[in-house]
Amino acid sequence: MTVDLIQRARAGDRDAFAALVDPHRGELQVHCYRMLGSLQDAEDTLQETLLAAWLALDGFEGRSSLRTWLYRIATNRCLNVLRTSSRRPVPAAPLPIAPPEPTRLGEVLWLQPYPDVLLDGLPEQAPGPETRYESREAISLAFVTAVQLLPPNQRAVLLLRDVLGYRARETADLLGLTEDAVTSALKRARATMTAARPPGPPPPPAGGPEERELVDRFVTAFTELDVDSLLALMTDDVWVRMPPLPFEYRGTEAVHRFFTAVDAHRRGIDRLVHVRANGQPAWGEYRRDRITGTLHVQGVEVIGLAGHGICEITRFEAALAPYFGLPRTLD
């Protein structure tokens, strides 16, 4: 059936081409997201990948699977994006208060969350023999953030080897590198990832009673502006980040200073609307207009869990709210 579709697609049948690539579209977008850390860039790069595949279909010789061929194109398109000098963090509105000095342990400003609704219905692909990461961990914000610290080639090698499970020889072929270069890049990438993401307890099962209880406690403390209760829920090495703003804080002492400094600003948050991002609990933040009474979206908040505590709080710009089905205003 695939051979027939390829022949028809080569003859210009766009429906046949769609039938070939659509089963892989979702996972390719996730791969681009892991590479680039940006949902918007991942969408754009996926479209470029599919266009390139359409134009190059005559050159597909079938020596690898169609899926692997598409991953080759997508990975190299992402590498092209990473190697250009035009990628810059999106301008963000400054905070209305003066925050304390950030921790500055490796800020990742080019980062966006990934809506869980885009993860629903992805095909269950059997992981390759070299896989090191479970699918939930490999989409988490902590993982994607750490990946953004890697140089482009190391980033591609780590994802192809440790997430997708390609063997060293296959990865070398996909990237046009030698096996020795792949092995060296993977060693360095793994060392960086270990330093950025030291081992810790796994999160509770998504949607389970442990997660719900922890999330409920967080929402109560957050909406009641109870800094001490918030800190009591956090792990000792908790991170607070606000990309694309250059403010990140690590550890409960630094986070306490931050929440104390922004206390007056946080008092304007009137409602949290629950969504999910990167397999994690998330919310849209809404502030009420005191004249009209209308609620306006202010941002998207995502938390990471480890064991029985919160290990990460990341706040994103309100411009991302539509990706999560969050309206700009509520009554």
Structure in a nutshell:
With 331 residues, the chain is of the alpha+beta class.
Number of helices: 13
Number of E-type strands: 7
Mean pLDDT: 89
Task: Tell me the structural class.
Answer: alpha+beta
Any idea of the CATH class of the largest domain? Mainly Alpha
How many domains, as an integer? 2
CATH superfamily of the largest domain: RNA polymerase sigma factor, region 2, helix turn helix motif
CATH topology call of the largest domain:
Rna Polymerase Sigma Factor, Chain: A
- The CATH architecture of the largest domain: Orthogonal Bundle
- Major beta-sheet overview: 7 strands, mixed
Specify the helix fraction band.
Answer: 40-55%
CA gyration radius, whole angstroms: 21 Å
Oligomer: single chain
Unreliable stretches covering 5 or more consecutive residues: none
SSE run: HHHHHHHHHHHEEHHEEEEE
Beginning-to-end CA distance, first to last residue: 52 Å
Strand content: 15-25%
Tell the overall outline. globular
Protein name: RNA polymerase sigma-70 factor (ECF subfamily)
Subunit structure: Interacts transiently with the RNA polymerase catalytic core formed by RpoA, RpoB, RpoC and RpoZ (2 alpha, 1 beta, 1 beta' and 1 omega subunit) to form the RNA polymerase holoenzyme that can initiate transcription.
Family: Belongs to the sigma-70 factor family. ECF subfamily.
Domain RNA polymerase sigma factor 70 region 4 type: 142-193
